[in-house]
Amino acid sequence: MGRRKTKHEIDIETYSAEKDVNDLRRQFLEELEGKDWTDLYDPRDVQRLKDDDFYCKRFIRHQHGDMNAAVKMVKNTFKWRKDKNINDLSETDINPDIVKIGAVFSYNTDKEGNTLLVLRVNCHRKDPVTMPERRKIVAYWVEKLEKEGKAVSVLMDCSESSLTNMDVDFTVYLISLFTTHYPALIGNIYVLEMPWIMNTCWKIIKTLLPSGAKERIRFLTKSSFSEFLDPKDLPPHLGGTCPREYAPAQVPTYENDDRRPSDERKNSVPSISEGRDQKA
Fold it and tell me: In angstroms, rounded to a whole number, what is the distance separating the alpha carbons of residues 150 and 159?
């Protein structure tokens, strides 16, 4: 028996009909006829659009049935995927110093059945030098989870973080992956244990987001997350009880930076190559 479909997936399936899928394909493919488009799009992405009805429906759902907007999103998404070589992005393409920090990982699901993509904010520091690699590791994880065919909810763990960890540009980039390049993939965005001092930053972030993304943001604490998250599916450092093993996170330090973690973190995360479906 296959896994049970989530509410998110059922919504996508039922929102559009076969005729809509065919219209999307026709409008996009007609523009490719008689042209050499291989420098613009990856043939694997074009083939997926031809073969995968659900993938087409995601674009249509994301644009609320606006076919012109859906076709435009297909073009922009495929061009971005080609430019960033997303289909071939692997762990070996990412700076190992960024990987070993353990700031990004997947961990079980929320109550809606969406895979949790966890970002440890206290492992992050705004740094233009490392920004390309930090963007790459997030794109790697989103692509990895998308290929597994499941919707994703982002969990931003803000515990033990401060303003030195807040990066508006990086946060907007993260959310823009879902609003611009991964249609109808995002479930919710959970911001857990956000310090009050970050309120101003989040007000700025929300002004930069489309209305659909704003509606998915949930500000939670470890004592108030039970409506959306089950403690048995979260690790202890997030207020959960799941005993699944994970490796120590490494909070980075920087030259001329006098910030230090309050104590030696005992939190842990799965290795980047570990299968996300393992549960204790």
Answer: 27
Inter-residue contact 74 to 28 (CB < 8 Å): yes
Classify residue 92 by its DSSP letter: G
Give the C-alpha separation, 123 to 50, whole Å.
41
| Sequence-distant contacts of 43-52: CB under 8 A, at least 24 apart | 44/87, 45/77, 45/78, 45/81, 45/82, 45/87, 46/78, 49/24, 49/25, 49/74, 50/25
Q: What is the pTM of this model?
A: 0.83
Q: Distance between CA 51 and CA 117 in Å, rounded?
A: 27
pLDDT in tens, 33-71: 988 999 999 999 999 999 999 999 999 999 999 999 999
How would DSSP label each residue in 131-161?
Answer: HHHHHHHHHHHHHHHHHTT--EEEEEE-TT-
Q: Quote the DSSP letter at residue 91.
A: G
Residue with tokens 């919504």: 11
